[in-house]
Structures are given as C-alpha cells and as structure tokens.
Amino acid sequence: MHAEVRVSAIALRRPLQLAARALIVAGIAFALLYVLLIAQPSPEVGGNWRTTNFGSAIDDWKSFVRTLLNGVTSAGLLFIVASGFSLIFGLMRVVNMAHGSFYLLGGYIAYEIQQDMTGQGFALLGTEVNTYEWVLPALVAVAVIGGVGLVTQQVFLRWNQGQELRQALITIALSVILADQVIAHFNEGIASTVTWPGWTNRLVGIPLLGVDYSLARLLVLLLGVLVGVALWAWLYRTRTGMVIRAGVDDRQMTSALGVNIQLTFAIAFVVGSALAAFGGVVGASQGAVASGQDGQWLLNSLVVVIIGGMGSLIGAVAGSLLYGLVFAFSAVYLPTTGDNCCTQYSIVFTFILLALVLAFRPQGLFGRHG
Amino acid sequence: MGIGALVLVALGPLVFNDYWVDAILTQALIVGIAAASMIFLAAYGGMISLAQTALMGIAGFALGNMVTQRTPGGETKGLTLGWDPTLALVLAIAGTTLIGILFGAVASRSLGIYFLMITLTYSVIAFYFMGQVTVVSGFSGISGINRYTPSFVGDMVNDRYRLYYIALGVAIVVYVLIRYVVKTPFGLALQGIRDEPVRMSSLGFAVPLHRTLAFGFAAFLASLSGVLLVWWQGQIAPGDIGLQSTIDLLIVAVIGGLGRVEGAWVGAIAFIVINNYIRDSWLTDFLDDVKVGGSFNTIIGLVFLAIVIVSPDGLLGLWDRLWGLVRRGGGPAAPAVSPSPAGQQG
Fold first, then answer.
1. Nearest 5°: CA angle at B212, between B207 and B217?
2. Cβ of B113 and A354 within 8 Å?
3. Is residue A9 within 8 angstroms of chain B, CB to CB?
4. Is residue B121 one of the residues assigned to a domain?
5. B280 lies in a domain?
6. For burial by CB atoms within 10 Å, which of A6, A362, B104, B311 has the most?
7. ipTM above 0.95, yes or no
8. Parallel, antiparallel, or unpaired: how do β-strands A40-41 and A51-52 relate?
9. Residue A3 belongs to a domain
10. Tally of domains within chain B
C-alpha cells in the first residue's frame, strides 16, 4: 500500500556521481573560458550568447582587471564581517543572527559621530574629512558594538549554552528589535554614508596590471588584510588565541583543563561583534548603510562561512574571495543579449556556488565539523 | 476543545464580522498552512527550515506569471502568459515542489543549525532573485492575480467567504495529510532519522533522500499556502518573501510551538491579531514618558524574545504545562519539551 522509499540506489550511485562531477568540472571550466576567451564586446546591432558588457579578458584587459580588483576588494569587506561571525560560531556554536544588525548599528553610529564632529549636513565632501575624523567614529562604533555584544552574550546567551536553536531564535528576536530601533533612532534608517578621509579620494596606478584604481577601495582590501593578519597573530601567537583554538576543537576538554572558558567566550563575542561594527563602518564608507542591509549582511556572512567552513580563519578568507569574485564577475560577465538578459540573473550564481560547495563538502571548504 | 474550535471556525462568517473573517481568519488560515509546513519539518524531521516563506512566494510568483494576461495599457509585470488557470495552478504547485526537492537535496546532508543557515540563504537568495529579475517580477511585483482563478474555485475578488471556506478546507486537508504522512513507513523512518541519523543510516535507510523528500513534501504544503496567499492578496511582491516575512513566519511557528502541527494556526491567529491592532501604532503612543521609539516590530520582537526565553515550545507548550500543573494539583510541571532535537547536534 505504501511505496517503499528506501530506494536501493547504491548500484547507480557510482556512475551517477562521476557523471555529475564531470559535468560540474566542465561547467566551471566553461565559465572560466567564457570570461577569459569566449565573451565578445557588444557589436553595433544585435548580439548573441557571447555578447557581454566588456567582452573577454583578451578583448578588454583593463575591465577584466578592474572586475577582478572589485571582487578582491569586496572580499576584504566580506572577510572583516564574516570572520567575526565565524569566530563566534566556531567557539560557541552560537549563530548570531543579529550579526547583520551589529553591522548596521556600527555604520550608523560612526555616521552620527562623524556628522557631529564635522558639523556638516548630509552632503559631506571627502575633502572636508581628515583621517582623525574617520578613525575616531570608527573606533567609537567598534567599542560601542563590542559592548553591545558583551551584554548580549552575558544576558541572553550565557545561561543557555548548547541550546543552539534557542540561541539562534533569541538573536533573531534581538535583530528584529534592533532593526526597528535603528529606524527609530538613526536618521530614520535612510541610506547614510560615512565619508572616507579626503586623501583616499583618488585613483592610483597599479603597477604591472596597467589600470588606475580607486585608492579607497584598495584601502578596504588593506583593512581586510590587516584584520586577517591581526586575527591570525591573535589566534596563533597568543595564549588567549590558543585557548580559543582549543575551545573550537573541544570545548568541554578545554574547560576541564581549568581554563576559564566563560571569559574566553566573552572575549570572542566582543571581538566578533566589534568586527561586525568595523565592517559596518567600512561598508558605510564604501557605499552606504541603510535599513534593511542587516539581512543582506547576515546573508553575506552566512554564505562566506558556509562556503569556507565554520570557525576556520583560512576558510573565511577562501569563502570571502570566492563569494566576492563570483559576485563581481557574474554581475558584469553574463551575456547582455536582448532587453532583459542576463546580468539580472547574477544572484543565481550565489546559489550555484553554495550548492556546489555543499554538494561535495557539506562542512565547507575548510570546516572540520560535519 | 479542538472540535469546538473547528465548529467556531466553520461558523466563522456567522459569528464574526466581515473584517474579521476576511482580514484576520482567512489570513491566519493561510499563514498557518505555511507555518504547519515549517512545523512538520521541525517536529518530525528535526529540520528548522527558513525557506518556507520563499517556497510560498515561489508558488505565488509562478502562478502570477502564468495566469495574468497582458492588458492594453496595463501595468502588470511578469511574463503575463495568460495560461489556463487550472493548468497554471497545477504547474505552480508541482514546480514549487520540484524546487523544494532541489533545495532539500542541497541541504539534506547538513544538520541542525547548519540546515537553518542554509535554508535562510535560500530565502534571501529567492528574495533578491525576484527583486532583480524583472522578467518574472522586479521589486514592484505582480498584481491582479486573483482575477484569473480556475472555474471550480470561483470568484476570489468579490466572494470573500468563498476564499475563507477554501482556505479552511485546505488547512484541514493539510493538517490531516501531515498526521497521515507521519504515520506512514516514510514518516516513521523520518522520525527515526530525526532521533538517530547514524543508526538509521547503518540500518540501510537513505538518510539524505528521506530528508530531501520530507523537504519536498513541506514545499508542496508551502506552495498551497502561496497559492491561497496570492488569491487573498491579489498580488505578490518580493517584499512578501523578504527577511522580515521569513522571520515573521518563524515567529508564528515558534509562538504556536515547533513541536505540534496544530500550533501553526494558534501562532498565526495570535500573530495576526497583534499585527492588526498595533501595526500602525508607535510605542510612544502607549508610553508617553518612555523615551524608547519604535513600532510594531519592537513589540513583536520583545514578545518573541519573551516566548523564546520563557517557553521555547510556544503557547501550546505553555498551555500543556499549565494544564499539567492544574491536573496534578500544583505538582512539579512536566519538563519542557525541547522544540526540536536540532540543538543536540554538534
């Protein structure tokens, strides 16, 4: 009467798996070839499946390099935000759904302080801001959100450790409240830009590649690298970092050895939240913060750590780079034939990237937990 | 008590006024179906899926694209294929179920909190897809969908009681179907996998396949809800499947209790009543001297926070424990049922 769902697929599995792998490798190879060789710039009239905005890398080398740099620099920002998310999850198994809210809040706090410091209206020019007027708002935002993170962890997450789902739900509730409070208290939640210091507002020539590129964007990359190096030094060269890595591997054993794991948890949560805020300041300087971006940055953090693997620093680097590059290239290297095709489908590639990684490594590229 | 509630709901149009029937009860029935699909996965599969809103929306968008017709000078977006509504209805439901199976297959090897995160990314990706791809929607969405309904369904625009009874009928079918499915060999195996995935795998059960099919079944239920939603609203836009809506549905499921299917409708009615009566008011309207701003979302966030902290198994869990307390004459309350075993993982 009831169909047996226990399909005996074992006999079929091997050839199917091989075929699927071959298909996927061919697909990736085609995508690379398409960008490097196959694509063509728009002709005067018409177009076909090879027609793209810029053509292939050999047609238009400079656009290719710029797209590459766009991808890598956005990876810098992705890394800053997602590494904090990954740190918190890796150590405490807490999925901080309010991470995007911390990002948003950080950006808005820096915006408000910068507005107060410079005494300007909304149209602040780069030349009106000096380095100090960018760094101080950033530091205050980072410190405040670090404090918010500490309170969140102590009040809402300390007494229910191990109840992953409940903790996720609690942080979702907090994100709902924070999103609403941002609209109520920070510039009505409309898009707000933190202004970079004036000296970054120029193009610099990149040696060897032969293109001019925005210094501010390169600064984002530099900040991402600095955060990465600092995190690496902290995790691999200090005692606290050692305890955190031990905690990521085996929380119970670490605390059984007499380490004050609660203190370590608090520190990691403060650092993770502060990184979200710092990312928010950088993101608000690069584009703008606006109500609703909390969801976008939660998505970004999720994608990066799902691809890279939870709690892995190198995984966060790899995830940021892959996601940043796929995002940058799919936005401009899809065919532009006809009215509606095809760059608007770029979001699909985020899903494809996610699906490909999960199909072969459910734990992410560098993750150790299944 | 369940029978009493059912009779009350069936007589709804006689008991309640038009606004309640149309705006609150119908909506609660529809949202409850989507929440039931989420609770089915959580309670019997141990999977918290945040993709149910997205799947609901996919069905709605699919239906909208297929049934609406290009009118001269009309503003309707989408493909405006103008297909036969019955065919479109079947295709929308079948297509959403297939997409659900694809989504499920990708996520099926991940457990617990990972599953939640992956399904959340589906949800956000679906939102951006519908917003960016102007061929099928764009940010303004598709409107006028409820003018094209199958003849056996009838007029959805003017006859709102008809929609109410259809929603009620579908909700009952969904409830009965879930109760039936969990008793089939498939459903029992699914519950075995929820509790002991490794052991079930050793016994020869295809664990990812069961999870995938369960997800596909939940997608089917969500698609029913999506179809009813577009008949009720007449339109659908990416905003209907955004992060806010995703979280709203989760709140509905959690308020009702993630452990029991009937909780879906309890949560839906509670959420929608709160929503309807305080959505447009600001906190300062109630609390003049409190310097906290914010709107409905702050209140619903606080309510949600309180429920998750006090009673993770929702209102029905709270009810069970109070009832247990009364029956045992003030004895110790029954231990709170864990909303799902998802938390045991890792």
1. 125
2. no
3. yes
4. yes
5. no
6. B104
7. no
8. parallel
9. no
10. 1
Number of domains in chain A: 1
Counting residues of chain B whose pLDDT is more than 90, the rounded percentage is 44
Is the separation of the CB atoms in B252 and B264 below 8 Å? yes
Picking from B249, B276, B242, B308, the residue whose alpha carbon sits closest to that of residue B33 is B249
What is the pLDDT at residue A59? 80
CA–CA dist B187, B210 (Å, integer): 9
Contact with chain A for residue B34, Cβ under 8 A = no
Mean pLDDT of chain B: 83
Residues B123, B116: Cα–Cα separation, whole Å: 11
Cβ–Cβ contact B330 with A under 8 A: no
Distance, in Å, from the CA atom of B47 to the CA atom of B108, rounded to the nearest integer, reads 9
Q: Quote the crossing angle between the two packed helices A293-308 and B112-132, to the nearest 10°.
A: 130
Look at residue B297 and tell me if it is in a domain.
no
Q: Which of A69-78, A300-309, B86-95, B287-296 has the lowest mean pLDDT?
A: B287-296
User: B27 and B272 in contact (C-beta within 8 Å)?
Assistant: yes
A208 close to B (CB below 8 A): no
pLDDT, tens digit only, all 370 positions of chain A: 454 444 555 566 677 778 888 888 888 888 888 888 788 777 766 667 777 777 787 788 888 899 999 999 999 999 999 999 999 988 888 889 999 999 999 999 999 999 888 876 656 676 678 888 899 999 999 999 999 999 999 999 988 887 888 898 899 999 999 988 888 888 777 888 888 888 888 888 888 777 888 899 999 999 999 999 999 999 999 998 888 888 877 878 888 888 888 888 899 999 999 999 999 999 999 888 898 888 889 989 999 998 998 888 999 999 999 999 999 998 888 887 665 567 778 888 888 888 888 878 888 898 875 4
Q: Cα–Cα distance between B248 and B246 in angstroms, integer?
A: 5
Q: Which domain holds residue B103?
A: 16-240
Q: Does A155 touch chain B (CB under 8 A)?
A: no
Confirm whether A197 is domain-assigned. Answer: yes
Dihedral, A138, A144, A145, A150 alpha carbons, nearest 10:
150
| Buried residues in B291-305 as b, exposed as e (16+ CB within 10 A) | eeebbbbbbbbebbb
Distance CA B340, CA B46 (A): 6
**How is A177-225 classified by DSSP, letter by letter?**
HHHHHHHHHSGGG--B-PPPPGGGSSEEEETTTTEEEEHHHHHHHHHHH
Which pLDDT value is given to residue B304? Answer: 85
d(CA A164, CA B343): 5
Instruction: Report d(CA A87, CA B301) in Å as an integer.
Output: 26
Residue B289 pLDDT > 60, yes or no? no
Task: List, as ranges, residues 293-322 from B with C-beta within 8 Å of A.
Answer: 293-298, 300-302, 304-305, 308-309, 312
Instruction: At B144, give phi and psi (nearest 5°).
Output: 70, 25
Cα separation, A220 vs B230, in Å, equals 44
Q: Is residue A352 part of a domain?
A: yes
pTM for the predicted model, two decimal places: 0.85
Which residue range(s) make up the domain with A135? 10-360
Question: Identity (one letter) of the amino acid at A244?
Answer: I
Residue A284 lies in a domain: yes
Peptide bond into A341 cis (omega under 30): no
CA A173, A176, A178, A181 torsion: positive or negative?
negative
Helix (H/G/I), strand (E/B), else coil: A370: coil
Inter-chain residue contact A298 with B305, CB threshold 8 Å: no
Residue with tokens 């979001």: A347
Q: Cβ of A168 and B189 within 8 Å?
A: no
Q: How far apart are CA A206 and CA A212, in angstroms?
A: 6
Between β-strands A211-214 and A203-206, what pairing exists: parallel, antiparallel or unpaired?
Answer: antiparallel
d(CA B61, CA B136): 8
Return all residues near A337 (Cβ < 8 A) that are at least 6 apart: A47, A48, A49, A51
